């Protein structure tokens, strides 16, 4: 299931403003890749180019190639809807659908995309909620609204919703930044389990988190405010945090700037 | 006012420290209100004014000024500003509610004279306008049918226009649509009526019918629906759209299954407000539906009546019996709109996103 992502020469724009410049990198399957870097350096923008969510923003535009195994996401004739079914996403703030129950939230991706039998749907929902470590907490109230859960539970609900459609890749945009340490730990443990099945890319501002959960870490930076963000280096997490090859990475990680 | 204070505030309590200050007793606003009403009545009588409105305005003015003066003296100028704002809010509230209550009271008291089951279930067939008897059934039926048809025409068009403007529209076309919707909001109802009259009735040579009236009402209703729906759709957080799109749901399904259900409560309220607005329109109905004394259940052929038109006609007759019927019909009209509003609120509450655990 999990697929390799191969990015080459990718630039993204908001209207005329270039947000990220000429990024090339490879994301290995069945691993966790963390993106770190100062605010505004284009981590989230880059993440959103990986499932064609960037172009949803008015004025959003992308140049370059993103190969998912052998297929270019930006090739002609590629359907962004199909891309997003393959590359799932979890957002910074938990965003369950307020009109839907917990069950319907998890089933949303499936139900909105096709018809499933009731039993089949129930099975997938249970599997996804178990996969997101939420089943035991919500199994007695699947018909209650999803927005009634706590923040951490809502975020795990969103993860369950994302993995219910069985994507190949899971993108996470600062999934723990709105959560307390206990919920954060729960999500981090979950990421560790999910990488057995998915390719995971996570954006985080928390360097300890990057060090804890990721196998490889990419450091992004921008020359100055208003300049496009660039990929500085991508390496094994251990190396990035112990002996990075670029001075800027070391400065950022040790807190000397940024 | 001051729940936090442990002891009961004593009149003109002396300050005890730098953080406390003299405080007026709780009943001060009531006392000042009573005093100003007395002053208003007194001044009114002394000056020989007959209009109670003048008395009330004097009382309101005295209330605001007295509150300010007393508070400045006892509590200090910051408290006085706070109190003057509060008293202004109260005065405005009373000024807004008094006409409303008096309107409701007059309509109910005069309307109840002839309003009964017979009145609701009979038409004016065979009843001379000047004599008592008859009823409002034909007008009520006409209103329901015309408003219903107008809603069926205007609500989907308005809804889809709003969806286009919020979800798809950018560039010149959307700007033009927004502009024309704004212009349409300002169309006087008689102009909408004349437009349908000139095209439908005169050029295409159809006779008066409920449907013709409904088309004019739809023109009036559409911009209201567009505007309110647009505002409601804009309130739906973008995160929900992105969440749905990121699941690989096509845009049209996202709008249909996520955006619209999230906003459905507000949209329903908006449509109902638009319905309430057109229910009271008289001018286009007068031109296009024409009015009749008979029950005509077919909105597509022949003259119908409607509640506002019925009120207008009966009032124009001018006899006691006719005026009583006009008041009763007005009461039916208000009740009709109010029931619709309550239904809309019920739907909005039922459909609104739930937050309970």
UniProtKB/TrEMBL annotation, chain A:
InterPro entries: AAA+_ATPase, ABC_transporter-like_ATP-bd, ABC_transporter-like_CS, P-loop_NTPase, PstB-like
Domain named ABC transporter: residues: 5-247
Keywords: ATP-binding, Nucleotide-binding, Translocase, Transport
Source species, domain of life: Bacteria
CDD domains: ABC_PstB_phosphate_transporter
Gene3D superfamilies: P-loop containing nucleotide triphosphate hydrolases (3.40.50.300)
GO MF annotations, alphabetized: ATP binding
SMART domains: AAA
PROSITE patterns: ABC_TRANSPORTER_1, ABC_TRANSPORTER_2
PANTHER family per the UniProt record, alphabetical: ABC TRANSPORTER I FAMILY MEMBER 17 (PTHR43423)
Protein name: Phosphate import ATP-binding protein PstB
Gene that encodes the chain: pstB_2
UniProtKB/TrEMBL annotation, chain B:
Main location class: membrane
Record's subcellular location: Cell membrane
One family name in Pfam for this protein: BPD_transp_1
Membrane-spanning segments: 30-49, 55-72, 84-108, 147-166, 178-200, 206-226, 258-278, 326-348
Domain ABC transmembrane type-1 span(s) in chain numbering: 140-344
InterPro entries recorded: MetI-like, MetI-like_sf, Phosphate_PstA, Phosphate_transprt_permease
Taxonomic superkingdom: Bacteria
Keywords: Cell membrane, Membrane, Phosphate transport, Transmembrane, Transmembrane helix, Transport
Membrane topology, record value: Multi-pass membrane protein
PROSITE patterns according to UniProt: ABC_TM1
Function of the molecule: Part of the binding-protein-dependent transport system for phosphate; probably responsible for the translocation of the substrate across the membrane.
Family: Belongs to the binding-protein-dependent transport system permease family. CysTW subfamily.
Name of the featured protein: Phosphate transport system permease protein PstA
Lineage per the UniProt record: Bacteria, Bacillati, Actinomycetota, Actinomycetes, Kitasatosporales
């Amino acid at each position: 299931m999990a697929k390799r992502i191969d990015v080459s020469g990718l630039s993204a724009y908001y209207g005329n403003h270039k947000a990220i410049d000429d990024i090339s990198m490879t994301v290995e399957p069945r691993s966790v890749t963390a993106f770190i870097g100062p605010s505004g350096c284009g981590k989230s923008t880059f993440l959103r180019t990986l499932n064609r969510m960037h172009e949803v923003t008015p004025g959003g535009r992308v140049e370059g190639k993103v190969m998912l195994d052998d297929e270019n996401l930006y090739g002609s004739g590629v359907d962004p809807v199909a891309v997003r079914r393959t590359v799932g996403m979890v957002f910074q703030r938990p965003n369950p659908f307020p009109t839907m129950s917990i069950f319907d939230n998890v089933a949303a991706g499936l139900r909105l995309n096709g018809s499933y039998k009731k039993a089949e749907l129930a099975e997938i929902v249970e599997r996804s909620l178990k996969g997101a470590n939420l089943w035991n907490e919500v199994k007695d109230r699947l018909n209650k609204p999803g927005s009634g859960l706590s923040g951490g539970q809502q975020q795990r609900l969103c993860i369950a919703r994302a993995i219910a459609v069985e994507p190949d890749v899971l993108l996470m945009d600062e999934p723990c930044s709105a959560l307390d340490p206990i919920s954060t730990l729960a999500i981090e443990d979950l990421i560790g389990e999910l990488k057995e099945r998915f390719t995971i890319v996570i954006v985080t501002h928390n360097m300890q988190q990057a060090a804890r959960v990721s196998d490889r870490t990419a450091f992004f930076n921008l020359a100055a405010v208003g300049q496009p963000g660039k990929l500085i280096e991508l390496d094994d997490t251990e190396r990035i945090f112990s002996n990075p090859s670029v001075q800027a990475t070391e400065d950022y990680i040790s807190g000397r700037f940024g | 006012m001051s729940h936090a204070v442990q002891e009961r505030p004593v009149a003109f309590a002396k300050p005890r420290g730098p953080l406390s200050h003299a405080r007026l007793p709780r009943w001060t606003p009531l006392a000042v209100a009573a005093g100003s009403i007395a002053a208003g009545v007194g001044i009114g009588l002394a000056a020989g004014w007959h209009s109670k409105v003048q008395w009330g305005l004097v009382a309101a003015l005295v209330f605001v000024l007295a509150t300010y003066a007393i508070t400045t003296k006892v509590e200090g100028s910051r408290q006085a500003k706070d109190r003057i704002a509060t008293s202004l809010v109260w005065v405005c509230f009373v000024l807004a509610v008094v006409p409303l209550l008096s309107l409701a009271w007059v309509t109910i008291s005069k309307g109840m004279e002839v309003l009964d089951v017979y009145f609701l279930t009979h038409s004016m067939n065979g009843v001379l306008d000047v004599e008592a008897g008859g009823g409002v059934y034909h007008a009520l039926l006409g209103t329901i049918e015309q408003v219903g048809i107008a809603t069926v025409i205007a609500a989907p068009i308005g809804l889809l226009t709003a969806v286009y403007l919020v979800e798809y529209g950018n560039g010149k076309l959307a700007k033009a649509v927004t502009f024309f919707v704004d212009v349409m909001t300002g169309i006087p109802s008689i102009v909408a009526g004349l437009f349908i009259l000139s095209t439908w009735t005169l050029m295409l040579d159809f006779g008066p019918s409920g449907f013709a009236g409904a088309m004019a009402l739809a023109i009036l209703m559409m911009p209201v629906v567009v505007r309110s729906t647009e505002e409601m759709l804009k309130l739906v957080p973008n995160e929900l759209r992105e969440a749905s799109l990121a699941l690989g749901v096509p845009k049209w399904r996202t709008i249909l299954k996520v955006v619209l259900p999230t906003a459905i409560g507000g949209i329903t309220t908006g449509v109902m407000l638009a319905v309430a607005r057109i229910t009271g329109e008289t001018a286009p109905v007068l031109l296009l539906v024409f009015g009749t004394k008979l029950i005509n259940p077919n909105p597509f052929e022949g003259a119908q009546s409607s509640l506002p038109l019925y009120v207008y006609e009966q009032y124009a007759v001018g006899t006691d019996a006719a005026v009583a019927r006009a008041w009763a019909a007005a009461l039916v009209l208000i009740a009709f709109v109010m029931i619709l509003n309550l239904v809309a609120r019920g739907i909005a509450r039922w459909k609104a996103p739930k937050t309970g655990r």
